[in-house]
Amino acid sequence: MPLHFVHDPLYSAPRIAGSGFPADKYGALLDVLREDGRPLAIHPPQPMPRAWIEAVHDPDYVAEVIGCAVPREKERRIGFPVTERVAARAQMSPGGTWLAAKLALVHGFAANGAGGSHHALHATGAGYCVFNDLAIAANRLLAEGDARRILIVDLDVHQGDGTAALMADRSDVFTLSLHAEKNFPARKARSSLDVPLPDNMGDVDYLAALDGVLPGVMRDFAPDLILYQAGVDPHEDDKLGRLALTDAGLAARDRRVMRAARDAGVPIASTVGGGYGPDRGLIARRHAATLWALADEAGAIA
Q: Which of 115, 199, 254, 273 is the most exposed place for a label (fewest CB within 10 A)?
């Protein structure tokens, strides 16, 4: 089956001076996927309606973003200024994650070519995240009856503190985070299950940690949809990572997540998440490798 991939031109932009956010990797990812020559179905998203964003975020903060009037202290916490383009992208990305989930419900697997903004909190953004697309999409999918129980698997190198905080009081959402214990954010939230990992952990120990928790969560929580934060920043060469996974280790990680979903007959939608460094092509290829590993393992779902 083709890789069902959600993309909008707003996802990509030139890098912002003074910011480490790799805004140019998203267009490069689409280029890499096309160059690979494998079956690819591209789906354009629509902006997430404001009411669904406000169902998760403080309406005053939503107004600040949409009106490009975010206070300086919040912009510093986000890591870049909120311009008209940033505000438009912040609304499009949750729409993309929601659409990827809707496509996954039909095809078994789909990916948003952006998203994974897991640091955004109720009344502010943080860590290059403006609105929390994972929490917004999960809330809408549950409210509209597309799912009853959603598992958010966050394997970014950074803890998904915003997602954990926003979903903390929900019995129909389970947040699982494996992350570098000493990495950002300094103050962690409490996920449904956190697995803090020591610096420089490599493939074997990381995969053992994942194997130690994922099957039990799948069995006990019994989700009917998975949102997968598939950051590639656990890679040993990532600029902001503190773990030491190789290319093969990341592929094995992604195949394990998809295999768990496939074996349980649970659809899965992925987000791009973290991946940092000066070479946008290299980062894009890491993301592409994750998507193809997921798509290959998902073949039995189709």
A: 199
